[in-house]
Amino acid sequence: MKLKSFLIAGLTGLLTLSSCSKFLEEKSQSEVIPKTAVDYRELLTGSGYMTNDEPMGFLYFMDDDVDFFMEYANDESYVVGSYDARYNYLWYTWQPRLADRNGVGDLIAEDPSATAYFRYYKWIMGCNAVLDNIDNAVGSQQDKNRVKAEALAVRAMYYFRLANLYGEPYNRNPQSLCVPMKLNSGIVSGPTPQHTVAEVYTQVVNDLKEACRLMDPLPIARRDYHINQPAIHILLSRVYLYMEKWQESVAEADKAFEQGSKLADMTTLDTKSGTWLTYNNVEVEWVFGGNTQPNQTTYVPAATFLSTFDQQDARLRVGISISEQTFVPLLSKLPSGANLAQTIRASEALLNRAEANVQLGNLAPALKDLNDLRRKRITGYTDEAIADKATLLQAVREERRKEFCFECFRWFDLRRYGMPAISHRYKHELGGDLLQYKLKQGDPMYVLPFPASVIMRNTALQQNPSGIMADRVGEK
């Protein structure tokens, strides 16, 4: 049966977690209600999996890997005061209004569909519709288990992202308020309060463990744009890393390698960009979502970050190109346009395992993983010997930073590293002062404000402290 379209009538209800409409409703002869496991897999593909639109691409502007490109052949007008420079200014300088307006003054959140919060819950709704009905579908138990496992895994990823956008870091305050959870497509009346960070993480872990239980006995599929077994184990390894459950993180990373995940030798690539984060890379287990590096000609890799790369590191060649016009390093790491651009891949399993092993005091296997990765990234690399735990931990984390830069990893990692102080430079107009905007240690903005439009629709939501701060002022 060809699944042509579905109307999700309770979309606004999911955002407020209140609705009095049916979740799925047949509206015409051209719209088909799913009956088979294949139908539900199509529903999941169209309504549960991320599209090529990335809701949290704004994180690109917020971490310490990015800088504001201000000069072009000594002509500051190339960037200073330009539309792009102003448009993302609020994110780049961590302003409390960033959830509701863009830098050119447009109100962006009158309609909640413009927010990351809305988009993730929209996909959660699609997952819930599948999970509520797949057990009654026509098809083999294997086919139903695969669909159910996929829906659980991608829903878990969305809640993990929501928790790291709008909740405190798990390792800082797991009992603090996070986001509401909706785990079925049924109707809920009235405002719905938030769950705690610990409750959200518990659900994420349970969903991923159940997805593994259902899918691990099945044949492993690769390169079909559906999450597979190794990708689920890598994602669970990441969640355990954030929870500081080190042994569990190691175990899940091991399972990914047992299921065939492997590293690729980047030093042998003859391409400069465009194919690393695709299924052409044998490391990649899952490709999904949209580009996470917007405005790469206005906001560029920070010089201090670039200085951490070995000059023979192939990641410079594959991920960063020098503009022929400006001689400024520009990002070229992710596929552009309508292509899916995000991945879960084997290098994360290795780095998750290395970091967790350092924390466990297992320095020898952690160092082996670090050297194994560097050997496949740096031409002519010679294995390094590191005997000190703190030094090795820092080396692993710096390698993680280089491996996953501009892929929506760094901001979340900074949160779990203790929310360090960072600064961004910005100039508002030609001839104006070069200002430093500072994010202080433990700054409230490490937990993003809820958009006002979302709070208006769910009055039980409590605004985060970042949403009621005074405007952040730059310093000369």
From TrEMBL:
Keywords tagged on the record: Cell outer membrane, Membrane, Signal
Residue ranges constituting the SusD-like N-terminal domain according to the UniProt record: 22-241
Signal sequence, start to end: none
Domain RagB/SusD positions: 343-465
The keyword Signal belongs to this UniProt entry's keyword annotation: yes
InterPro entries for this protein: SusD-like_N (IPR033985), SusD_RagB_dom (IPR012944), TPR-like_helical_dom_sf (IPR011990)
Keyword Membrane part of the UniProt annotation: yes
Full protein name: RagB/SusD family nutrient uptake outer membrane protein
